[in-house]
Backbone:
């Protein structure tokens, strides 16, 4: 399990084309082959959920996204 609520993940502060930090976080999550539960509560990841979770090696059993402003593209990814 990995809990990152209020973790200051905020894609709104990224200038277009400068999401290296988000890509780095996604790559690091992809290196956790036994990750089953992820809590990103109150993270501002609007429109980037696919990019953030796209490197996961196995499907999550539990994904907590309370108070995250998700966009239709995020829901389509899920």
Residues:
């Amino acid at each position: 399990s990995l809990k990152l609520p209020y973790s200051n993940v905020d894609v709104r502060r990224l200038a277009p084309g400068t999401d290296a930090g988000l890509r780095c976080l996604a790559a690091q999550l992809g290196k956790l082959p036994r990750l089953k539960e992820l809590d990103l509560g109150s993270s501002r990841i609007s429109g980037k959920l696919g990019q953030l979770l796209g490197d996961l090696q196995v499907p999550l059993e539990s994904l907590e996204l309370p108070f995250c402003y998700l966009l239709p593209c995020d829901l389509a990814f899920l």
